[in-house]
Amino acid sequence: MLVAGRRRLADLDADRRITLEPLASGDAVSLLTHIIGEERASREPKATHQLAGLCDGPPLALRIAGSRLQNRGAWTVECLVGRMAGDEHRLGELSVGDRSVEAAFRLSYDQLAPEQQRGFRALGLAPTVEFDVLTPATMLDLPSYDTERLLESLVDTSLVQEPRPGRYRLHDLVRVYARHVARAASDEAAAARRAALRLYLDAGRVTSDWGSAGFPTGPRPAGAPFTRWQDAEAWLDAASGELADVVGHAAALGEADYACWIAEALCDYFVRQGRYQESQTALEIALAHLDEATDQRMALALRNALAFTSMFQRRYTQSRTLFTEALHLSRRHHEPGEEARALAGLGAIDLSVGEGDRAIPHLTAAVDLSKRLRNDWVPSVALVTLGLVHQFGQRNEGALSWRVMATPMPTPRRTADRACWAGP
Fold first, then answer.
1. Residue 186 CB neighbours (<10 A)
2. Which residues of the chain have pLDDT under 50?
3. Are 48 and 77 a contacting pair, CB within 8 Å?
4. Which pLDDT value is given to residue 408?
5. Beta-carbon neighbour count of residue 395 at 10 Å?
6. What gap in Å lies between CA 123 and CA 238, rounded to an integer?
7. Rounded CA gap, 353 and 361, in Å?
């Protein structure tokens, strides 16, 4: 006997259990080609692959999309692809007659208990495709144990996938539906998405070498679930290549301040790991939304952060331009912290391009200014850079004295040497 169900029938005795996963890309294209015909698919191979990707695997979605094209002989495949662009239109286009993908999801959603429905709505607002227990626990304000039980119950309903132990995700179309039902509870959705963004902000700031003085505006990481910077770093590592997408997610939801704060907070983390392109991408996304942000410091901080990233990419001309812009703006807007950071950066650029003597006034000014602000990161790296200036100038006593001055200071967690000099 074969027994099929929307949810996993865990209480049913069975000799063998099979989970029907969404079709892989090649199989999805084959099914779509079978429905619309080889000739039609071969005329638009790229659009056919795009349409299969938008359907994202479920045979129901592919059959509905194929049926719509069968009944619209004047439509090209590219036409339907265009109609499905954007989450707000995607589910609506996957409907024909009394069959629709949204209706299938609604049937499963309506069978959930209230706490499961709330959890499902929150998962649609997660800033990454894949997530662990901590993200929904923060969004729902629940203990980790209760959140894990909730997630496992949603896995049993086939609405949530568990690609590997402790990591969860929603199928692409399911995530679109979860966001759709979340809109009906706007206050709940706003609180959940900001809690998730705050989690990424706290993680970035906790693991950054810049320290608390490096982030004088925005929410403080009080109550963050990371007891050590290593814990925050490991949690960010698990997100892998999706971190820049968190900045884009915040910007797309109209959370421009969070987009800027997170991009700034992740900069040191990215640079420390040599992930310069991701840092650049996150910062450029945030810079594009500066006009929507209320934190005026971000206009300076993001330029400093992008200049910092560019320096390690050895784009010295671009880096010098950005540091110079940040310096002038910080003086105009009376932001001494960003001024000190820009001065230290300019000194590091001078050293990197072989202009050590030009670096000295920039670096000494950065040390003097940041000491008055009780900022540990800037003077520590500026002093080490000053030591390198004298060392490369064959002034060993001067190099030693600057190094000695830097030693008693609370230096960055790993090594100050890498912080402000990208090398020749």
1. 9
2. 394, 396-412, 414-419, 421, 424
3. yes
4. 45
5. 15
6. 18
7. 16
- Which of these, 178, 204, 182, 203, lies nearest to 191 by C-alpha position? 182
CA distance 31 to 61: 11
Tokens for 70, please give them: 């069968």
φ, ψ (nearest 5 deg) of residue 15:
-80, -30
Nearest Cα to Cα of residue 47 among 78, 24, 90, 85: 78
Contact 377, 209 (CB under 8 A): yes
Token pair of 356, please?
Answer: 């050590």
What lies within 8 Å, CB to CB, of 45 at 6+ separation is: none
Structure tokens belonging to residue 253: 């939801």
Amino acid at position 2, single letter: L
pLDDT at residue 423 in the model: 53
Contact (Cβ atoms closer than 8 angstroms) between residue 109 and residue 181: yes
What is the bridge-based pairing of β-strands 95-96 and 99-100?
antiparallel
Give pLDDT tens digits for 203-231. 999 999 888 888 999 998 777 899 899 99
In three-state form (DSSP H/G/I as H, E/B as E, the rest C), the secondary structure along the chain is: CCCCCCCCCCCCCCCCCCCCCCCCHHHHHHHHHHHHCHHHHHHCHHHHHHHHHHHCCCHHHHHHHHHHHHCCCCCCHHHHHHHCCCHHHHHHHCEECCEEHHHHHHHHHHCCCHHHHHHHHHHCCCCCCEECCHHHHHHHCCCHHHHHHHHHHHHHCCCCEEEECCEEECCHHHHHHHHHHHCCCHHHHHHHHHHHHHHHHHHHHHHCCCCHHHCCCCCCCCCCCCCCHHHHHHHHHHHHHHHHHHHHHHHHCCCHHHHHHHHHHHHHHHHHCCCHHHHHHHHHHHHCCHHHCCCCCHHHHHHHHHHHHHHHCCCHHHHHHHHHHHHHHHHHCCCHHHHHHHHHHHHHHHHHCCCHHHHHHHHHHHHHHHHHCCCCHHHHHHHHHHHHHHHHCCCHHHHHHHHHHHCCCCCCCCCHHHCCCCCC
